[in-house]
Every structure is written in structure tokens, then in C-alpha cells.
């Protein structure tokens, strides 16, 4: 009996077949590159995202002469705006720093809420010149209709831990 | 006499069954329930206002992505360390990872919209966002590896190894807000002090979302796994056809072949 011919047969080229084989390799290379970028950003930015107000000049990486991301709670009654600049104080653990920010802070910025301000210290007046304000809201969710509203508002301005 | 019927190669095969259809209807009802509570009945937040409603999509999608990646890891382990090395586990692992990647993308999109409203920025390279991005990229890489050349078993083996390694990123993402200083808030429910600081109706709506999205995950997983199984069946039928063609060549070329 004749054995079957198992040698590969010529196959007609199929339109679009090559890109399907190449695509996973390209995606894999892109994913590895993107992963490298993300890890780099993690090591350079995410590990120490901010300095608390009370750590300025004390903690490694929180020196006054470098660009900082400063975290603290906006002090009650300290927010003032002249239309161009918004000035406010932020405090953490009984230490307060004055901030000047060009423009209106975005997000849900208001008094008694924790914020992270990006900027640098102005050596002439010792105020922190912010160019970005990020609101760091808490993990508490309270209904606007809640009977505990007053209590929540009163406790909202407690210094962040 | 009733004529006998043999299985037809072109017989219609679908991924749906009576059970999946019922599951689909229940999922739709739950998603409608979520819409009702998420957009109408649940209250606004004193700080975030109506933006808090994004949470009812954001949290369930990230839960679903975690669940999907854990299912991928479990099935990868069952494939790799099981006695039979069943490709069925590999199919579930692949299907689950695909669903996880889609929902992780939705998590990043919904989180970035929520961040713009509350923080004031769409994106920031803080610990939670950065580790989440890494998790997302890792599973895109996993899916890419599944698509590389090789035999079905070889592809299953190497993707199973990655599926087992990648899942360790999940606790890193979850605990990133505790391990490092982050702009992202800490967990409200799954935190260590067991103090759940959330309004009752908001919590109920959030759980409704988690249940609705979990049902959706099961429905999607069943259909996608069956689709992959049908793809494999199609590929094996191509091989069967090629073998049949070779046999036909032999029988037609042999002196005694071609008839009885």
C-alpha cells in the first residue's frame, strides 16, 4: 500500500494573513516599552508623591530650594482671590504654609479639604508659589440629605492625619 | 421508518444556551436596577456632588477586572499543574483576561473622568494610578503572547506562566495607597480598620453595581470561552480535512483504490 505524501503543499497566499501574525509581536513590543515607561514614572514620581507641610526642610527630598508637591488641608477662612491669583493657607500637624496660585484651583477645591499643591518656595516672601492644585478627597461619602451633614461639615476641617 | 441523521459538518453551533439566555436577562435587569439607583435614587455627595455617581461604574469595573485576572491565574495554574493539561482551562484563562483588559480600560477611563472633576486633573503619576496602568499593560502583553506563533499547547503553556506571574500585581495595586503616598483616596470598604464611611443608599447602589457587573462577567466569560472553543474546533477540522485529502490521494493513486 502506498503511504500518504505528508510533505508540505504550496499554499496560495492569503490576503491579510501576514499582518495577523505580526500584530501580536508588535503589541508585545509596545506593551514592554509602555511597561518600562510606567515603571520609570513609578520610581521617579509615584513612590514619594508629596511632602506633608510639616516635613518641609526636615524630610529627605522635601528641601525648600527644589520643586515640591506639598500636601495639607486648606485652612478655614484663608481662601482669597483677586481674580488672577488665589491665596490660601495649607496646614498639616499644626504647621501652616501660605500658598499663591495663579488662577482658580479646579476640582472640588474649597476650605477644609486636603490638597496637593505643585510649585516652589519664593525666597523673597517665603510663600509657596503653586502652579497646580490637586484636591485629595477623603474615602468618606456622605449624602447631601444626611442628618449628619452638620456634624460632617464641622469635622471636615479637622487637620488631616 | 424514521430516517437516521448523521451530524452535519455545517450544523449550526451557537454559544448561547437556555441558561446563558436566562443569565443574560437577569444581568440586563440588574444593570437597569443599577442605572435607576445610580442615576436617580442614590443621593449626591456633600463634597463631590453628582460626580460621586461615577463610583457606581468605576468600583464595579475594577472589581470585575481583578476577578477576571484572578480567574485567569487560577485557570492558568489548573492548566499548567493539572494532570491532563486540559486546553479548556487555557480557553477560560484567555477569555477571562480579555474581559479583564476591557474592564480595566473602562476603570482607567471612568477614573480619569472622576479625577478631572474631583482632583482637577485627568491623570497623575501617583502610586495607585501608576500601578493600575502597569497592571493594564501587563495583561495587554499577556494577550499579545497568546497570539504569538506556536502550537496550541506551547502557546497555552507560556501564557499560563505569565498569567500566574501577573496576578501578583493585584495586591500591589490595591495596597499602593497604603504603601506609598497617593493622590487617590484609600479604600472605603475593603480597608483594614473595617470602618465603612459611606452613606447607606450609596453602599447599596455600589453593591448593586458589583453584583450586576459580576453577572455580566459570568455571561461574557461563558460566551467568549465557547467562541474560543469553536475557533479551536474550526482549526482542528481544517487539519482533519487535510488528512482526509491525503488519504483520498493515496486511495485514488493506488492500483486497487477508487472503488469496491
Features:
heterodimer; A: about 160 residues; alpha+beta; five-stranded mixed barrel; elongated; B: about 260 residues; mainly alpha; 7 helices; about 70% helix; disordered N terminus
Question: Your description of this structure?
Answer:
- The complex is a heterodimer of chains A (161) and B (260).
- Chain A has 161 residues and is of the alpha+beta class.
- Chain A is built from two helices and seven strands, in the order αβββββββα.
- Chain A has a five-stranded mixed barrel with strand order 2-4-5-7-6.
- In chain A, strand 6 (114-122) and strand 7 (127-135) form a beta hairpin.
- The mean pLDDT of chain A is 81.
- Chain B is mainly α and 260 residues long.
- Chain B has one domain.
- Helices cover 70% and strands 0% of the residues of chain B.
- Chain B has seven helices and no strands.
- Chains A and B meet through helix 1, strand 7 and helix 2 of A and helix 3, helix 4 and helix 7 of B.
Assess the beta-strand content of chain A as a share of residues.
25-35%
Mean model confidence by pLDDT of chain A = 81
* Helical content band of chain A: 10-25%
Query: Class by helix and strand content of chain B?
Result: mainly alpha
Separation, N- and C-terminal Cα atoms of chain A: 87 Å
Mean pLDDT of chain B: 87
Order of helices and strands of chain B: HHHHHHH
Overall 3D form of chain B: elongated
How would you sum up the major sheet of chain A? 5 strands, mixed, barrel
- Contiguous runs where pLDDT drops below 50 for at least 5 residues of chain A: none
Q: Radius of gyration of chain A over alpha carbons?
A: 28 Å
Q: How many structural domains does the protein architecture of chain B include?
A: 1
Summed up, the helix count of chain A is: 2
Question: H/E order of the elements of chain A?
Answer: HEEEEEEEH
Quaternary state, please?
heterodimer
Low-confidence stretches of chain B: 1-9
Q: Sheet with the most strands of chain B?
A: none
* C-alpha termini separation of chain B: 28 Å
**Classification by helices and strands of chain A:** alpha+beta
Mind telling me the C-alpha Rg of chain B? 24 Å
**What's the helix count of chain B?**
7
